[in-house]
User: Fold this.
Amino acid sequence: MPRFDDIRIAPSDITDEAVYRDRRRWLKALGYGLPLLVAGCGSNGDADAKTAAAPPTGKAFDNVKRPSPYDATDPQTSWRDATSYNNYYEFGTDKDDPAKHSGKFKPQPWSVEIAGHAEVTGTFALEDLVKPTDLVERIYRHRCVEAWSMVIPWVGVPLADVLARFKPTSRAKYVAFTTVARRDEMPGLAYGVLDWPYREGLRIDEAMHPLAMLAVGLYGRELPNQNGAPLRLVVPWKYGFKGAKSIVRIEFTERQPPTSWNMAGPREYGFYSNVNPAVDHPRWSQRTERRIAGDGSSLFGNRVATLPFNGYADQVASLYAGMDLKANY
Amino acid sequence: MRTDAIARTKPFVFLACLAPFLWLAWDVWQQTLGTDPVAQLEHRSGDWALRFLLVTLAVTPLRRLTGVNALVRYRRMLGLFAFFYATLHLTIYLVVDLGGFWSELFVEIVKRPYITVGFTAWLLLVPLALTSTKGMIRRLGRRWQLLHRLVYVCALLGVLHFLWLVKSGEKIAVREPLVYLAIFVVLMLARLPWARWTAALRKA
Assistant:
């Protein structure tokens, strides 16, 4: 049995870009004749484009501290799948829209406004917020509310370390995160799918939990735009939509902040949104999930049981002691 | 159109109807279904089941519009292809998607409105497919037509199935199922006896 202690992708494992592109071209040439037989088939014709996201790009970080005691040992998702199958509605609602339509987005330079109940507030450059010397890698399971999941090596810093520097006061009971909304760089904003800008929030003890992190990269490289460049939240025991992307504002609040999906469908998406197989989405089951990992193209054997708190119950269940998790979904 | 023209074109229509299946099979073979191939298979087989249901429902209005009554001779094949893609869709869900978690099926069918509705639509298609032979048509007589009106219910349930499974239940995500709903409504309205009504109106 192979062990999965260390299955990070070595540069030698990655298909050379030229080989990859050539293979795509060849498949396209063969495959695209057929759909023309039937008029109006075009709507599903871009399965090929979906897989054709760029191979590992972006600046590689050096001095990333690894491994972490929190690392998941499940087989990892491929870089290609993690960067071409995304929910980032500001770039479009299809899974391949973010990779296709985020090219105009400029994640540099970047600054974040820190506001609310803290002794230190103001606007800070990304480099001051997340120091390149403090980076750690965390391999986390990522569970989408749509019942698919991935296993991703994030690069970033514990959220608690960043927040503590601003010295939140005793009135800071919650932390609110706001995503950037640039109409000229994010075509999805033209549609009123959600009430823009995208907002998320955590209770302060959740935010201070060592598992919560602010990520600036994945697979040892800078975050691609479609994954929330340059700075995003990662909360592995909650559904993926809690992880606000391209964060421009962090506010310490006294009251529970409004959050985007909760505003769009309060019965379907709660403020807490902890991964919980016992609480179904009103329209679909959360008891199992389709894992996108290893050879993402395999058809069978992808379904796995969903674990309470996405398998992080030992670390985080105590945060919710005495709470009715069915009422506080 | 002479009737033998229908007979001569039937093999081509058959191949055209099979093309989405061949295309899907090709993508499976070439592994070009993308990151979540199971979802792709489900969506595409489901799309085609719904499309063929609506195409089948379009035969009668088209026949009235063009006056080419022989078009009805394509209808059984189109309807059976709708059943074929619906069965493929259900099979993919059962065997490929739920694989290993079949106990979930009963829970899902009962608890999940969109699955209840989708499964019901498929169940209602079964008797229609079984009674599509010449012998059954003859044997059932008038009752055959009554039974086959179930196809309206199937199409409506199919659209609902699609409408209820989208994520947010609002705005952009429902655009596509709403297009199918609109087509269904138009095809149903086209069945009303407009000519008789306008004639009556003119007389009055």
Summary: Chain A is about 15% helix and 20% strand.
